[in-house]
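Side project, low priority. Logging it here so it doesn't get lost.
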Amino acid sequence: MNADEQVVRDLFAPHDPAAGTRPDPERMDQARAGIQTGTVPASVRGGPARGRRPLLLGLAAGVATLLLTGVTLYRDPGTAEATPPPAPLSVLPGELDDAGEELRELAERAAARPATAGEGEVAYVRLSRWNLTLSQDLDTGEEGWGIAPVDEQVWRSPDHTGRVVERPRPAEHLAGDRGPIDALFEPEATEYEWSHPDEGLQFSWAPGTLAEDPDTLRRQLAEGDGIENAEVDTAEVFYGLQRLYQEMPVSPGEQERILRMLAEDDGVRLAGQATDREGRTGVLFVAEDRLFSEGGTLQRRIMFDADTGMPLYHETVAMEGDTTDIADGSPVVNEYVVLVESAWVREVGDLP
């Protein structure tokens, strides 16, 4: 655990009734003996389903387990019952404001950032995610939950080869029916490679093809999702950016164009200063999303470095709708991704 992570956890601890919870070794042994685990592919809307990283689901007698990718719950700190901790994002309170001026200033800072020559054509991205598993005993109705942080490294090559390595960390904030969660999330790395265009995690946009024209760039980011609307919605653009930043490094020039394009979009709102789980501080922007929310409302959020304009992390929050039922109507963070590192390298498997 790094120092920044410890500081953030310490800040959250007073508001988290389960902060001191630790796995029961006897319960873990019982769970391991009585549970069967398997793998299922996780599909991502707009991306190829084949070759996606495996997500663990556990089924034992009388127990049902549900895995929600990148989910944490938020509930009022005054709530007495044990609930998942607040979302790892910390935002200074304030109203959403017009974002144009701030985005244009960030664009200037991005443009002033020295360009670094890539050492190759393979895109390397290292991410940090949070996964929440909810479980319920079918006989007793007892509910449980736990958060499983995952570190992920992905290499993508223009020749359609690549690799993904996942390193789960021990589950945190376990509560309720903990047995299935204790057994499912062991800190063992998994690795998957591919070598065919129809396999693995391919580029949604060919490297170096982001448009110069703002209107063309806006549509390019949105239609990378395969959606062709007469008008491009801000949420589609944000969704495209979330995927872009997870797939490849962006150059200072590309990031400048992206920020200037966002500055002309009235649907982008400024949330202010924010701090992520890694202790990094930046400027947070949000867009409301009703396209992918299945009758509810989402907020797509992206944080940029205040000094360089480069992306630091993104998350998607269910503000209202069926998903928030599991948090008694409170917002539910259904995706949280820290953009730890990205670079161009020579070969799949190389590190910057």
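Brief comment: The radius of gyration is 20 Å.
Revisit when time allows.
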